[in-house]
Amino acid sequence: RDFNERCAQCSEVNWGLTDGGRYYCRSCHNVTERTREVVNTDFMTNSRVQTISKGSRKQEKTGIGCEWYVCEGFQLVLKKQAEALEALGVCPQMKDEVLYSFWRCYLQKSKQAYCNRPSGETVKTLSVCESSTDVDSEAGRSNLLHLLSLSESEGELQTDCSFASSMSKVSESTSVYSGSVDGSLYLMKNQKEKLRMTMPMTLSFCYMALLWLREPITLSELLRFVVEGHIPYLNVFQHFPEKMKLCGLDLKIFCVESWPVYEEVYNKMLELAAFLDLPRFPDITDSCFLHPDMLCIKYLMEANLPDELHNWTCRVVKKIGIGEVDFLTLVPGNKSTRKVKYDILAAAVIVVVLKLLFLLDDNYEWLLSDFAEERNKNNKEGGLYFEFKKWYKVVKHSLDVEQKKLDEERAKYLWRCEKPLFYSVKNKSKVLKRRQMVVNLQNQFGKLSGSEQCAEKPNPSSFQLSWSEENTDGSCFHGHSLKGILQEKCGLLTAMNPDYWLCTVKLCNEKLCGHLAHYREVDFPQSYHFVLRLFSFLLRIQPSYIHDEVCMIEHKLFNKKLYKKLKYNTVLRK
Amino acid sequence: SSHEHKLNFKRSKEACLSYIQDAMLQKQWKRAAEFLTFYVESLEKDYSREPIGPSEMIWRIGTEILCHHSRSSTKEFNCFMEQMKTLGVKRYLKVCLEHVFHLLCNGQIDEAYQNLSLAESWRFGEQTALQDKEMKLIQAYRGLLDYYSWSKQKNILLEHGKCLDGFADLSVEQEMHSCFRKAAMNLKEIIKIPGVWDLFVKCYVDLLEFYGDHNEACQVLNEYAYNSKFPANPNAHVYLYQFLKRQGESKKSLISALKILHDIVPSHELMIDFNTMLQKSKKRKKRRLGLEVIFAALDYAGWKENVKAWSCLARQVKQIVISGKHLDWIKQEWNSRKDWWPAFHFSRYLAKRNWQENKSLSYEKALVAGILLGKDCKYFKYVSHQGCKAQVKRFRMLKKFVNRHNPVYLRISG
Fold this sequence. Notes:
The complex is a heterodimer of chains A (about 575) and B (about 425). Chain A is mainly alpha-helical. Helix content of chain A is about 45%, strand content about 5%. Chain A contains 21 helices and 7 strands. Chain A has helices spanning about 40-45, 70-85, 95-110, 135-155, 160-165, 185-190, 200-210, 220-225, 250-255, 260-275, 290-300, 310-320, 325-330, 340-360, 365-375, 390-410, 430-445, 510-515, 525-540, 545-555, 560-565, and strands at about 15, 20-25, 30-35, 485-490, 490-495, 500, 570-574. In chain A, the strands form 3 sheets. A 3-stranded antiparallel beta sheet of chain A has the order 1-2-3, with no helix packed on it. The termini of chain B are far apart. Chain B has a domain at about 305-415. In chain B, about 75% of the residues lie in helices and about 0% in strands. By secondary structure, chain B is mainly alpha-helical. Chain B has helices spanning about 10-25, 30-40, 55-70, 75-85, 90-105, 110-120, 125-130, 130-160, 165-190, 200-210, 215-225, 235-245, 250-265, 270-280, 285-295, 305-325, 325-335, 340-345, 350-355, 360-375, 380-390, 395-405, 405-414. Chain B is elongated, with a radius of gyration of 31 Å. At the A-B interface, helix 16 and helix 17 of A face helix 1, helix 2, helix 3 and helix 4 of B. Chain A: Belongs to the RRN7/TAF1B family. Chain A: Keywords: DNA-binding, Metal-binding, Nucleus, Transcription, Transcription regulation, Zinc, Zinc-finger.
């Protein structure tokens, strides 16, 4: 189990191992007497799980491959993902210690390994069917057929139709099977209490480990790297060793045909953290990358907004207390606190600040911009005043260009890989023939496509939009001053805008309808929608999620006013 | 748009498809080809639930791209089509047929014939029966190509008829007859099925006529024109009429052949022939019909400047006026037209233009206008004035005629 005590000297939880196997604190180098349990490193390199109490392994003589269990497959996936993250700059501790420990803990808790199998529960495989009168296997097979037919109607990973229909013929010698030993069992049993492992969940594991180590990667970034191919996810089974044959129901487990959704990965992570009985995660303090103050800097830069706005974001963060350690740090299992999505939160803070300063009602911001433009003409101070209009033009143009590129990339996505997938040996030849034809057609039309055939992945980068101060065309707004839209009052600079409109007067019950508010583009000003669209692009999520967080922040910010005046008028004076 | 809530294989391929469609509509073939390369992996997924699956999409899109792309070659095209044939057994014959059409459009008659023969010999269990329609079409087109071979050989023989080359003639003749047999068999089959088979019918009839089987030809054409199971087809009647004319049939049968044509296509060019025949008939009913036919034809803008049509109308109107009988016919026809024909045919502008461009046209029209609208109507006044000024004899006669018969106009218009 991972060592979670706070260091006696510095109270941090940041442990490393000395050569002697003793824990030492990385922050202050305090060495303890605590030693680590010896770890079975075979677990990581060898795909055989030693402790599964099934009986001796047999290497199939038919050359089909070795026996392997589904969790071994996932373990390989996690290993690959961790290695990729390491290559991106994440500390090696993540893979060797944190992720591995989480995984082992999971296996224990879900009774897939490192424990005694409860009696009576044997791993059942559906073998080649003889004309058996065994009721169990009949029922099992028909259940699986049901599963397969369900997935057909969903359109996900449809089986070969002829394959499914042949299953109903009892006399056929083919059977529903999988390359893995427990593939069919894995899918059949109701695994709800035991949190069955899925491909999206591998990303939950990764994110959980990253969060534990407070690495500077947000969930939206992680998912973006996955889509861009820097982290193995799609077709990761290509990297399984030759002897681990993947077929039949394994495909339903390991092949993905959709991109992971932020909400899904995030919620699973919370579930997982609770399931593993993890303690309070390491503190997110204001020096952490994930702290809203820090993330705001990043997003302000990417959105080409003036650095001066950071003062405002910090003020908002401080005022509503979302910069507090206790608010930001994850405590698994605690259902009363709202869980924090760091990236969305930071983006929402910026949106709120923009609303505070510019109102964003499709009218005021333009007037203000004209005003700033006037002041700019007489500006002798050297630094330009920020003009909303100019910023909008520049950013909109870039956003449209990038969005268009992204849309095309998504349409050009290739989902299949060289490694063929087939449900049964019976349709192997058909699958291979199809694959060959696809390759032929790709070559034929590829030649007619034109000269540019860039197949290289773009380098992974943290910033999708970049703006340089050196550009003389004035397209970078980082250094611009907000003075053009501020006024002096009692020695302080305050916003000229006296008004604010709430996105919603009443928040919904998140537990009932899943959202705090329901965003519809037509209901809101276009400038507001534009700002949401901008961050929606950067974070690769739906605008409604940012809108939810904006609502949450607004309600915290105007808490007193909301409960004092129960008006339906949504325009409040600050 | 971009905000796909859950981007998955299916949605991604749908998006890809819409990019292909856009590119094709804008004739950006390179771009279409590019996106197609990303679409083809849809073949690896089963879409048997959808009405149109990826294999059909790829076939159709690929064909379009290869047809229009500047850098594609016939060899590539043929190779592609062969691949498409293997893709879907349910569509095999259809793909063959479309491949043949492309070859024919590119003038590759021999390759087309080979492909047709190959397709004809295809058998695939119950699919053969299911694709019966396509098979019939394939046989029909092969019959058509056989007809063209026959036709070529016939021409060769006719040429050789001028010089005396006995031996070569014999083999050509034998081949010709064998082509005839093959063609006749297949063409006969296809025209049994209700449909539009204009080209096939023409060729078949040509064959029959050459070998002197006029009865069969007549029967075939009658079937084609009058069998209610077949869709209404003006050409069927035209073919029948032309055949009867060639055979020297009586006016009565010629007229009956054209009657339905008039009903379906009153603006058909044969209406002139029809009217001419009807006018000369001894039967009153037929002459009445003739007037109806010619008026109906001139309702159409395409006939506005047709001298022949106007001369037919003019002749018949003149004849009725002179005889003094059946003025009510003209009245009946004019009734529904008097509101719009004046502006349509007899405006002052048209009078000027017709006079400038075509004196005969203006003459005929002026006569009709003079009778229908009276001597004071714009058209007649202008044309007759111009004609008399130019001292053309017939215009002077025209003026006299209309003046003399002006009361007719009063009776008609009243």
